[in-house]
Amino acid sequence: MGKERPRASRAVPEASWLLGVALFERGEFARADEVLESGFRSAEKLGDEPYRWRLKLERSDLGLWREPETLHSADLIHEAETAVKALERLQDPAGVARAYRLLGDVLNRMGRQEEAVRAFEEGVRNAAIAGDEREISERQGVGVTLGPMAVESCIRLVEGILQSSRRPNVETEGQLGLLYAMQGRFDQAKEILQTALSRAQSEGAEWKAASIAVGLGTALLLADEPYAAETVLRPATEALERMGEQSLLSSAAADLAEAFYRQGKQREALQATSLSEAASAEDDVLSQVTWRGVRAKLLAEAGKPAEAELLAREGIELAERTDFLNLRGDAHVNLAVVLEAQGRRAQALEHVRRAASLFRQKGNVASSERTEALLGQLHLRQPGTPQQA
Hints:
0% strand, 19 helices, 78% helix, Serine Threonine Protein Phosphatase 5, Tetratricopeptide repeat, mainly alpha, disordered C terminus, elongated
């Protein structure tokens, strides 16, 4: 890691980094932050620039999950890019890899998947130069799942990553399970996600376990199994609340709201959208769109068409700024449901067609088939004269 200092002098920063990362994975966010901050101060005092940057990056990434509303994406992008340049000068490829991972996480939150993928790939390249096996395995495959790459291509990529990995990576396995679900291979999806979940739990990686549980819940929603989805999303949401985590919590609560909505549990669904809204950072597009969509459908059922339509259209506006094809498709379906509740079936059909096109572009067979069924239902209900706006 650049010009080496005596081991004794960097013992505290190094130990703080290792312990902080372990606590982060265990979901002990407050303790992790304390340890990382202490290590950062020690590295500053010692003038140990590589570890000062490493600890600073870990704290920022922790904050991205723990307190996302307090951290501006533009500031984090600047920090990551500055760190890359500084650590390259210090000839610290492992540190450079960590900086690129932070950059990818921020871009991912903003819905800029193609850019996030490039950041993660550059991180893996630098981690390989450093021989850092742990960093090599981090986030691989994450950037492709919801972005514009077709599902079939995503599966080939992620399967290749898993086959070449020297150590099992539960997050990458979770991504593969979600991709299988998009293809309609639900039994395989459930098996790989449940295996990854069990492994994460057995390793004590509670935060990763919650992340995989959210993926399993999403897969079950793709299979249109809302009751089963609730059984994994509810405990994951509760676990994230206990951890004091916010970023993943906002997604878990939004998906839980959708599971409740499909079961006809309006009160629980509304409460879950409120939890997601409260936890969502302004630029956490996935959560912002998802909770709006569920609440819009609830408002439509409650006889509040204007409020429902406003929220659903806000969801589309936010989603269309991203390259998240699935999210954009879901947003159009949500507006179609709201419009159909008002009897505006001609307009609803337009949005269902748009959603179906997006799902086909992604190769999301599960959502495409569900949307095609909705399209057929609307055609059957379509009156001879289209309804006016």
